[in-house]
TrEMBL record, chains A, B:
The keyword NAD does not apply. It comes from Bacteroides luti. It comes from the Bacteria. Keywords: Methyltransferase, Transferase. This is 16S rRNA (Cytidine1402-2'-O)-methyltransferase. GO terms for biological process: methylation.
Amino acid sequence: MEVALYLLPVTLGETSIDSVLPPYNKEIIVQIKHFIVEDVRSARRFLKKVDKEIDIDTLTFYPLNKHTSAEEISGYLKPLIAGSPMGVISEAGCPAVADPGADVVAMAQRKNLKVVPLVGPSSIILSVMASGFNGQSFAFHGYLPIDPSERVKTIKHLESRIYSENQTQLFIETPYRNNKMAEDILHNCRPQTKLCIAADITCEGEFIKTKTVKEWQGKLPDLTKIPCIFLLYK
Amino acid sequence: MEVALYLLPVTLGETSIDSVLPPYNKEIIVQIKHFIVEDVRSARRFLKKVDKEIDIDTLTFYPLNKHTSAEEISGYLKPLIAGSPMGVISEAGCPAVADPGADVVAMAQRKNLKVVPLVGPSSIILSVMASGFNGQSFAFHGYLPIDPSERVKTIKHLESRIYSENQTQLFIETPYRNNKMAEDILHNCRPQTKLCIAADITCEGEFIKTKTVKEWQGKLPDLTKIPCIFLLYK
């Protein structure tokens, strides 16, 4: 096994490891003793799910969140520099994509350390695949502004890029505000603009549906508390 | 197994199925008899690799390329409408993302048929993860224009979005023009702009390296004939 910073995706919810992660990931994970993680408790739970034989007490966890300083991150990489492979685990899906991890990867790249991303579920790619929208040009924007007028402005701006650049536009929302987001889209986009709602991806209630704004009117499902990604295209 | 249009990723090159595809994909694949494929020969090869017990002669393949008309695509979906699960397979990675498939998915969405994307390797997500660049906002642009002046204009435009929108910019090139593309970036971007070159992702020669334009000067690896994705960020 090569000494590297391995980027280890996790499941997107209550789904089995076998449904979303390649067997190779387990082979790599069981050889790693040092994990940089978004949340220690859920990382431990994930590792136990990967292999219940893993002795969690022999592992070291380095917490990674918005309060982690650049100095701390630099310190975290010491085992890797000393020759031990390390892993990065975020809360859901792929680390460093719409999730923490990019800072530690950037630091590893600056220090010329090897970085190896492993395959796993990304709601971004899965939703682009299933939307029927342009997969040759698309942009992911994370969360839109919370301020109502800024938010409407952003939605309209993204909609304009669909038409001016033929580019699929993706964004997310905190689950308890999903219904509001869907309504904001229906109220501010053109009737013929298409909206794909991709909810609970890879999980039991998976729902990925594309309709025009006009067709969605009055027919929105309840998206409260369900992880969702929204896609717009023409 | 649910009746649906399954989007089935394949390996990105000469790598094992187990390293990039979840076991669940095989469970699904062996139950499908109708495949819409970018290339019949490579699809057969992939299916044999997934399970050498698959009797290829009992399967039906529907070729999908830029010459396939909307009417043909609509016809392709008849088995699905009649109650048989179908699969979509492209040449490399995830169907409908930087690859054909989006038209057939769009048709399935219009006909209100269930679409289920399965997890697999996407050079786009894997390279964003490993670049250390912004994974909260990124845009994939496919191929840039071939015309030299249009191309330089596009590179500069994408570079400006790094700074104005804090957005990671990704694009690809046909392998035999990769060296030219890398040179075009070095000649036209600011010295401090960062370029991540991600080559041969998930394969034996995987190389993912982030440096500033200035640092890359005179130190570009030979990228001819190697599948590559280019990422720009500040």
